[in-house]
Amino acid sequence: MKIDGKFAARVALFSALAYILALASVYLPNVSLSFIAVFTCGALFGGKTGMAAGGLGMFLWTVFNPFGMAPVPTTIAQVVGMIIVGALGATVAGSAIMRAVVPRGFAMFALLGVVSGLIFQILVSVVSAWLFGPFWESLSAGLMFALITIVSNGLIFPACYPLIVKLAVRETR
Question: What is the spatial distance between Cα 86 and Cα 46, in angstroms, rounded to a whole number?
Fold first, then answer.
């Protein structure tokens, strides 16, 4: 893939969207609409674009968070987690479920939402438990709180599926 103006514009747009959506949901603990923005970027434009937007968007959110910046190891875990979310979006790019809304598409998006939340939260919870310890107690408490992210992603992703298909169809014209 050639890095050109179109790539830069897409990354800038979706990383800004991820930041704004995270900010919009800041008072809903562990519910973040930035996951769907990054996933959509990967689904529409491929892995490199989705991963770049996810990494940049999460970096911006972590550094310019209204509650203060997270510790550096946590920041790295969050950025890596959101890069993976962008890559997960690329798994459906160009697939049959992106050309028309189909019932199995809702199930696939629900599963991908759960997986994206699970991967992200495992990374962040392990790093946070390592930082703040005691490890196993912190990890179990963090993973219990992470269920909010996992469940909310499992609901948000299929709810946004028809819109993402519409965007994908427009993009292929």
Answer: 8
Residue 71: which domain range? 5-172
- Per the CB < 8 A criterion, the answer to whether 24 and 16 are in contact is no
Q: Measured between alpha carbons, how far is 131 from 86 in angstroms, rounded to an integer?
A: 26
Report phi then psi at 44, rounded to 5: -85, -40
Alpha-carbon distance of 36 to 114, in angstroms, equals: 11
| Peptide bond between residue 134 and the one before it cis (omega within 30 degrees of 0) | yes
Residues 160, 40: contact at Cβ < 8 Å?
yes
Q: What is the pTM of this model?
A: 0.93
Q: What is the reported pLDDT for 1? A: 56
- Token look-up 């959509």 returns 40
Residue 98 has pLDDT above 90, yes or no: yes
Count of structural domains within the chain: 1
Q: How far is CA 13 from CA 25, 26, 54, 148, 153, in A?
A: 18, 20, 11, 27, 21
Assign residue 128 the CATH number of its domain.
1.10.1760.20
List of residues 6+ apart from 110 with CB closer than 8 A: 154, 155, 157, 158
105-134: pLDDT as tens digits: 999 999 999 999 999 999 999 999 999 989
